[in-house]
Amino acid sequence: MPLLTEQYSNTLTELLFEKTDEFVGVYDLVNKRFVRVNQAGVRMLGFPSEAALLNDPVRSRSVRYPPLNDESLGSLIARIIATGTHQEQTEVRRQDGQTFWGQLTTTAFSVHDSSYALIRLVDQVRLHQAERDLEHSVRRNEAIFSSATIGIVVCDRAGQIVSANRLAHQLFGYADNGLMSQTIEQLVPTGVSHYHKKLRHSFNENPQVRAMGQNRDLQAQRADGSVFPIEISLSYFQLDEELFVVAYIIDITFKKESERQLLAHKDHIEQLNSALEQKVADRTHALMNTLEQLEQSKDELARALAAEQELGELKSRFVSMASHEFRTPLTAVLTSATLIEKYPGGDQQDKRQKHIDRIRSSVKNLNDILEEFLSLGKLEAGKLVAQPVRVQLNQFIAETVADMRLMLKPGQTIETHLNGPDSAWLDPSMLQKTLINLLSNAIKYSEPGSAIKVVVSVVRQQLILSVADQGMGISKDDQRHLFERFFRAKNATNVNGTGLGLHIVGRYVDLMGGTVSLTSELNEGTTVTITLPYENHTVN
Fold first, then answer.
1. φ and ψ at residue 56, rounded to 5 degrees
2. How deeply is 83 buried, as exposed, middle or buried, from its count of CB atoms within 10 A (0-12, 13-18, 19+)?
3. Where is pLDDT greater, at 442 or 41?
4. Fewer beta carbons within 10 angstroms: which end of the chain, N or C?
5. How is residue 422 annotated by DSSP?
6. Higher pLDDT, 2 or 224
7. Cα separations (Å) of 317 from 173, 256, 312, 488?
8. Can you tell me the distance from the alpha carbon of 330 to that of 449, in angstroms, rounded to the nearest whole number?
9. pLDDT of residue 400
10. Cβ distance 530 to 520 under 8 Å?
11. How many other C-beta atoms lie within 10 A of the C-beta of residue 312?
12. Which of 236-240, 259-263, 304-308 has the lowest mean pLDDT?
């Protein structure tokens, strides 16, 4: 051991033993035993310490299961010394009796005329699982890109299209992969293609995530030369110092036609009103009743027009929100999937894992957004009805809070004060989704290290559930709109969200026969309080 202590400096120990999550050991080929094993190797074989492994009469001599006999071991050592290296797949047994298959690589070396070997063992199960997870993640995200309900086109700095999804090919009338041989200017009407080049150069100099063509109509050109109206949002990412621009394209042909019809309808109504007013002026007092009826019709038409305008605004807000919320995780997925290809080596798993985790997080974000859309669709369709059953309330809330702890930011805590009844008649699904939504908002809009409080109590035969945070708070002007669809507070625009969470909470609470209220101060926090009836319910 003094010889090894002298030869293996701190730098070499750091590189070979402490900077890898694989088994690495030094084996004395003369005495046929390990003289050093790194901490990752100790954990892989299930020993409490390196000393315990080196003192084990079996494991200190071989990691194979079962170990080689003396004759076979001697023959193998002679081959390693003669050839300098040896590699094989072998079964390995942990201290707790579990076995796994590993890739064993042995490299011989000499120190002061003594023969040693550096032995490296890679757990094949982990490698294969990581490869499968990566393949599944790539397939899922390719499916999301290909099945997106908006056209997506990616081009490089020179305007050459490098990627486009299926809907983009359909919108522009190209066969599969036909857009890959085109430039972005070929999708612009011929008369403005030169102007578009200047705009592209300007964007390259100062790339920003933004909508394109503010306050003016945009058109695109199909493969057959025909044009159609569009809305475009731009994003970008950089890969190996190369700029790539992402265009999210929506065909608004039907929207424009609807607007045209709406304006024509409005003009027609105004003409009718003018004619009616003239007739009313010419008629006697005997026709006043008829005039009142016509005025009622006018009001009804105005309300219908206002309703259509509100619907148009909701659609625009939805498209803008969905474009933004899908664009960010999709860009992260595309960037991470590309970067993973840059780390093919077995010793680069930590770098690959960082991007795999980023892909998983982005996919989960997309799944949460879709879940909110599905919940809203069911609520709007009136398909949900509260179905109360007897719930062990304190246990139910404690388990839900425990599940949410995985989402906490560093240093965040959730404190619970459960003073409610042991059981209550409530809809468990609606209550759980409501509580998860409130806790998610509290975590999302609060800083690391802050505390979140969940309080349950009973006041006058009413169950009171409140969730309080110490987050950014909400202004008084925004509070009156918080339960509207797709509304986002002004100070929350830089935080991911759909603006549906509190709207869905309000609908669930209403279906359970309760009420919801909110108090908040900017930079001090927010408290959401839900009041629910919980007694005198029966299964029938």
1. -75, 125
2. exposed
3. 41
4. C
5. S
6. 224
7. 28, 16, 9, 11
8. 30
9. 84
10. no
11. 14
12. 304-308
Residue 15: per-residue pLDDT = 64
Burial class of residue 51 (count of CB atoms within 10 Å of its CB; 0-12, 13-18, 19+): exposed
CA distances from 446 to 222, 413, 435, 442 (A): 47, 11, 16, 6
**SS3 category, 109:** strand
Q: Classify the C-alpha dihedral 58-64-70-75 as positive or negative.
A: negative
Task: Please name each of the domains of the chain with its CATH number.
Answer: 2-123 (3.30.450.20), 148-251 (3.30.450.20), 254-380 (1.10.287.130), 389-533 (3.30.565.10)
> Omega of the bond prior to 66 within 30 degrees of 0, cis?
yes
Average pLDDT, the chain: 79
DSSP helix, strand, coil percent of the chain (3-state; round to 5): 50, 25, 25
* Structure-token match 């002007």, residue found: 477
In our burial notation (b when 16+ CB lie closer than 10 A, e otherwise), range 243-272 reads bbbbbbbbbbeebeeeeeeeeeeeeebeee
Predicted structure pTM score? 0.37
Spell out the residues 6+ positions from residue 234 whose beta carbon is closer than 8 angstroms to its own: 203, 208, 209, 210, 211, 212, 245, 246, 247, 248
Q: Which of the given ranges, 18-22, 76-80, 324-328, has the highest pLDDT on average?
A: 76-80
Distance CA 402, CA 391 (A): 17
Looking at residue 314, its pLDDT comes to: 46
* pLDDT band with cut points at 50, 70 and 90 for residue 430: confident
Provide the token pair at 438: 């409130």
Q: What are φ and ψ of residue 290, in 5° steps?
A: -65, -40
pLDDT digits (tens, 9 = 90+) for 348-371: 677 666 666 656 655 655 555 555
How far CA 488 is from CA of 306, 335, 364, 427, 500, in Å, comes to 22, 28, 21, 28, 9
Query: Which of these, 358, 353, 330, lies nearest to 343 by C-alpha position?
Result: 353
Query: How much is the average pLDDT of 173-192?
Result: 88
The runs of H, that is alpha helices, within 341-427 are 349-380, 393-404
70, 111 contact by CB (below 8 A): no
Distance CA 153, CA 197 (A): 16
CA distances from 66 to 23, 79, 294 (A): 18, 20, 97
Token look-up 């009420």 returns 515
